[in-house]
Amino acid sequence: MLGLLFRLLAPMRDRDNMRACADGVEAMAREEAAYWLGMALHRKNPRRVLMALRFLLTEPKH
Questions:
Q1: What is the pLDDT of residues 17-44, one digit of tens each?
Q2: Residues 6+ apart with CB under 8 A from 18
Q3: Domain around 9
Q4: pTM above 0.90, yes or no
Q5: Other CB atoms closer than 10 Å to residue 29's CB: what's the count?
Q6: Which is nearest to 53 in space by CA: 41, 61, 62, 15?
Q7: Is 32 inside any structural domain?
Q8: Domain assignment present for 62
Q9: Number of folded domains in the chain?
Q10: DSSP element (H, E) containing 10
């Protein structure tokens, strides 16, 4: 989970979004976090995977 957090939060600047992503990763099961970390490490374009995860974990602003 820690590796996923480092990769997920590195380019982010907004503290609210960072908190939402960190809380979402901490709430994940171990297998789910391992799945996302594997996708982020072994895909040809990992930025897309990380952006998708950020999109899923943050709430849209209205």
A1: 999 999 999 999 999 999 999 999 999 9
A2: 9, 12
A3: 2-57
A4: no
A5: 8
A6: 41
A7: yes
A8: no
A9: 1
A10: none
